[in-house]
Amino acid sequence: MTKSMTGYGRSTASGNSLTVTAELKSVNSRYLDIKYKLPKMAASLEPSLKNQLQQVVSRGKLEVTIDIDGEGLRNREISIDWELAETYMDKLKVIRNAFGMRGDITIDTLLAQSSDILLEEKQPELTELPDLVSEALQGAMQLFIEMRSTEGAALAKDIRHRIAGLQSMLQELRELRPHVMQAYKNRVEERINHYVDGGLPENSRLYQEIALLAEKGDITEEIIRLESHVEQLRNNLDKEGPIGRTCDFILQEMQREANTIGSKSTDASISVIVVSMKSELEKIKEQVQNIE
Predict the structure, then answer these.
(1) Strands 60-69 vs 78-80: parallel, antiparallel or unpaired
(2) pTM of the entire predicted model
(3) H or E element that contains 80
(4) E strand or H helix that includes residue 136
(5) Closest CA to 56 of 130, 3, 12, 131
(6) Distance (Å, rounded) from C-alpha 271 to C-alpha 172?
(7) pLDDT tens digit string along 259-276?
(8) 13 Cβ partners below 8 Å, 6+ apart?
(9) Are strands 32-37 and 60-69 parallel, antiparallel or unpaired?
(10) Which of 44-48, 87-91, 214-218 has the highest mean pLDDT?
């Protein structure tokens, strides 16, 4: 199924004391580019997140945001290093006596100098965090993929519609081809006869040259290649997995063939078709830029 590179998904998972919210959003990119916004306590989970995402996403600029909340973060215990606190008190007394200072040594005095050592926060228990992050991410990925698939289906429908238009144009070119070649041959003969008194004998070498000139303007090979590319493009839309780069390459080849037809033909009706064809190819290319 064709998938777009644009998508969004958000999901929440709750445990005994934690709630985790995962958010995914992506836009077009030539390659897979993943950016993470993780709280410090979840930083070690980045490799696991990357592994899960790479299984379902091949292209796009993807932003992953993980938010963590819950009582498990707020219920923190504080421990005191009593031995170190006593050492600080003794040292502060020594300093006071050495300089003949007056006044009591208060708790504020002690904490102002050593709050980072005297008070030590114990990190909350986060044993359930990895499972909750994985659960939230899976939920977000499901919504994310659904959105990419829905948009991808719309893109494929539009491209198929334009492919049908290209096939109609190619059929018109096929029908015009013999008439255009004959008209080109007649035009050359008329000009030659205009400048040659009495015209040319039927077995003249010049008639062979006229035929060769007409063959050089033949667009049959380009039409055949374009028809083949159209079929390849259509088949790619039905394939599983990333198809954007392949479709982009096929379109480049189609544009090259259309340009060749335009340069070969001097017929106004063919030129009009070629202009319309190139316009449709540009529109298809714009849509393909959004496909994974």
Answers:
(1) unpaired
(2) 0.71
(3) strand 78-80
(4) helix 129-195
(5) 3
(6) 12
(7) 999 887 777 888 899 999
(8) 19, 20, 22, 132, 133, 135, 136, 139
(9) parallel
(10) 44-48
